[in-house]
Structures are given as structure tokens and as C-alpha cells.
Amino acid sequence: MNNIFNYQDTKKALKAISANLGSPARETILFENFGKHLLEIELILNNLEENYKVLDIGGGLGINLLTIKNWYKKLNKNRRDTKGSELNFYLLDKFEEYNKENRMGEEKSAIRLMEQERIKVIKQDFWLNPVLPYEAYFFDLVTIFNVTEHLPGHPLKIIGELKRILKPGGKIILGGPNAYSLMKRLRFLFGKHPHIPFDLWVKDKYFSHFREYGINEHKLLLEEVGFKIIKIIPSVEPLKTQMIFRSKNFSPIKTFIMGIIFIIKLVFPSLRPSVYIIALND
Known about the structure:
Number of strands: 7
CATH superfamily: Vaccinia Virus protein VP39
């Protein structure tokens, strides 16, 4: 399906979905994670074929899958050869952190939207219960974006489960923050914890990052359970989107410094804030 991917149409679809999820979610999607979602959606579409079964594990409010569904419905109106075809999307998440305090809002409206779009949603804490409710070799593509860093232990058991439910030749796309990005190195240099804010750590319930992984460590996580690496993509998102919308509040000096930092990240991929890895169930 990658030959029909259109960047502008996908942007419109993402904006439409964000509008349906309420003001807090819309602000977060459009002004913090817009470029991140666009990249993830492009990666999914570039590895998606007709009648594929796709699982987004830890996919939260289903932004990526809802956007693709929105985009695909419009595509169907203009292409006779896609009419009657179906995107078989599945999402599994524990949804515990989506409460009134979460800036993305509660999960009720998002789950309702997903069910309307025939996205099959299952609520399960896959850390406490890592056995996923799917048959072996069921899926053609699995995505796991910004999940492993939230687990209170190593993620090999759940990644092994993803290998079990993937067809031979199926693909996994793993994405997460880069533990050794330039900004995290600078935070450490100035005496700040690189990825765990203290006020979040001491709350009764903690939903942030337990352990982040470097680019090579993300690769090792997949190789450890037998995946074959196809492609590694260090990304400047979500920093690029955040800088675009925050820079208007920066002083000239801060704008200059942030510009230099951004250029360094472009030149040195190992210092970028996030990484995506595509791997094959060989």
C-alpha cells in the first residue's frame, strides 16, 4: 500500500481524528506529537498490504489506527479497486493511565470511535498477564510504540509473545525514546535525571518511564528473541514538532541555542530523541 501513501491526506486525517477526541488530546496530538504520529503512520502504511491483520500493542487511544482508517475510507471513495477491502486492525492496552488527570483524556470516547471503525479492542494488562489472547501466527504486522520504556522490568517476555503471534515473514515495528539522546546527556550533565521527573516518580501511581533504551539496545531487544533487523530509523521527532510550536515563546538566544542543538541531532543520528526499528519474523 506504500505506493498510494499521501502525506497531505494523512495530515488531514490525523487532524480530523484529533478533533474527535476532545480539546486536551487535540492539543497534545497537534502541538507535541504530530510529526511522531505522521512518521508512525507512514511506517505502518509502508509495511501494510491488503487484508493484513495488524496489532497495535500498547496503542492507547488508537490515534494511528483511527487515522489510517479515516484516510482509507476517503481513498475508497476515489478508487474502485479498493472498494470492499478491509483493514483488519486490532489494539490491546490496559488503558489504566487514561483517566481525568491524563492530558489525553479518558479512554471511553476513543474506544467508542475504534469500535465504530471496526478496530477490535481488548483491555488487558500485558505486564501482569503477558499471554496475549491471539492464536500463533495470527498477525502480519505488529507495532509497539513507546511501550517498552514503561514496563517495570525487561520486555523480552512480551516481545517473545509478539513473535509467537506473528506469521513467518511477518514484521514488527518497535519505537521508543533514545536513552542516549543529546538532550538527555545534557540533562545528566546539569544534574538532572535524564528521563524520570522526580514529581512523577513519587506519585502514588507512576505511569512514566522505568528504563529507556539506546538505539543499539532497541535492536538487541528484538534480536534476543529471534527477529531479523531490516531497518533502523533514528528520528528527530517528537522534538521537531515541539520546537516548531514552542519556538515562538523562546528568546532570541534560546532560539539560537535550540537551533544549534537541532542541527547537531541532524548530523549525528545517534543523538536523536527517538528510534524506530523494523524487523522480520524470520
